[in-house]
Amino acid sequence: MKTENIKNIEYATLFKDLLSKDIDLRVKVTGGSMTPFLKSGEIVIVRKVHFKEINIGDLILFKDDNGFSVLHRIVSIKKNNQERITFITKGDRIISIDNPVREDMILGKAIRIEKHSKRKGLKSINLESPVWKKLNFLIAIFSLLKAKLFKISLSNKYSIFNNIYRF
Which of 22, 67, 81, 137 is such that its CA lies 20 to 30 A from the CA of 5? Predict the structure, then answer.
């Protein structure tokens, strides 16, 4: 059997094609930008939704400016003068926010997480449940606050962050 390596940049196109056919995707988490909430190896179920169904705290899969697929949390939603909506996203572990995400860049929204543990086996988390919606909202607000405080601290020449983080 012949196998083909899919370039990382092609995943976003593949995901978009499958989601446009109303197929829920099971995506394996890679990387650490969403730890501790999501760990590498866990499975996220992603569903195509209309951008008006996306709220602060939701995890979205989107195509970034370089064409890569990224799963990050919505921390803010902005509307400009022409009524265009942009989403501000951020990895939970990352201090800075991402570039704004336009509605046409969104591939889908995470609706469920499958976590595996040796002691408990498979645990499924419904991100659409009222409890998880509220918890994710609080995580988003805290994450945005952390990013803003960090940005303010960088502008202060006496900040301890200036001695720790050199850019």
Answer: 22
Residue pair 16/25 in contact (Cβ under 8 Å)? The answer is: no
Q: Across all residues in the chain, what is the average pLDDT?
A: 84
Domain extents in the chain: 8-152
Nearest to 70 by CA among 31, 127, 35: 31
CA distances from 61 to 39, 47, 133, 149 (A): 16, 9, 17, 26
Q: For residue 146, give the amino acid letter.
A: K
CATH T-level fold of 8-152:
Umud Fragment, subunit A (2.10.109)
Whether the Cβ atoms of residue 51 and residue 129 lie closer than 8 Å to each other = no
Reported pTM: 0.81
Reply yes or no on whether the pLDDT at 59 is more than 50: yes
